[in-house]
Amino acid sequence: MSGTYVSLHYHVVFSTKNREPLIGAEWLPRLHEYLGGTVHGLGGFCQGVGGINDHVHLLIGLKPTHCLSDFMRELKKASSIWVHQEVGLNHFAWQEGYSAFSVSATSREAVKEYIAQQPEHHRVKSFREELVQMLVKAGVAFKPEYLD
């Protein structure tokens, strides 16, 4: 084969530190736009951003040269700095970890729709309930004490 062809797409989810509802409705769209631009700036492909006041979801495509953990560290660092500088919320921080789920090409549209519907989704389900459901569905072993 003369070329390298990959389809590396991830649904990533991460929360504000201590799940505090710090993301204000008035600047949430700007944060989502910034996250998408930062994904692009880091060499990835942003296909969807959503979330509510205490967490975000992104659908991203990465190159085979990307290391997911390095990518996430830089994304979270840059966006924290942006919140400090642009919003003036100096105590804002993201949680230490994140969740990432691989997404097949045939499932990308459904994941994009799921991400776009976050406000409606969280009228009936907490972030913790959502995360547990995602982890169980993906077959990811987890310790409940690390979800809070």
Comma- or semicolon-separated keywords:
single chain; 148 residues; alpha+beta; four-stranded antiparallel β-sheet; 5 helices; 40% helix; 18% strand
How confident overall, as mean pLDDT? Answer: 95
Net shape: globular
Order of helix and strand elements from N to C terminus: EHEEHEHHH
For the biggest β-sheet, the strand order reads 2-3-1-4
The amount of beta strand, in percent, is: 15-25%
* Secondary structure tally: strands: 4
Characterization of the model:
This protein is of the alpha+beta class. It contains 5 helices and 4 strands, in the order βαββαβααα. The protein has helices spanning 28-41, 68-87, 108-116, 118-121, 127-138, and strands spanning 9-15, 45-52, 55-61, 99-102. Helix 1 (28-41) crosses helix 2. The model has no long low-confidence stretch (mean pLDDT 95).
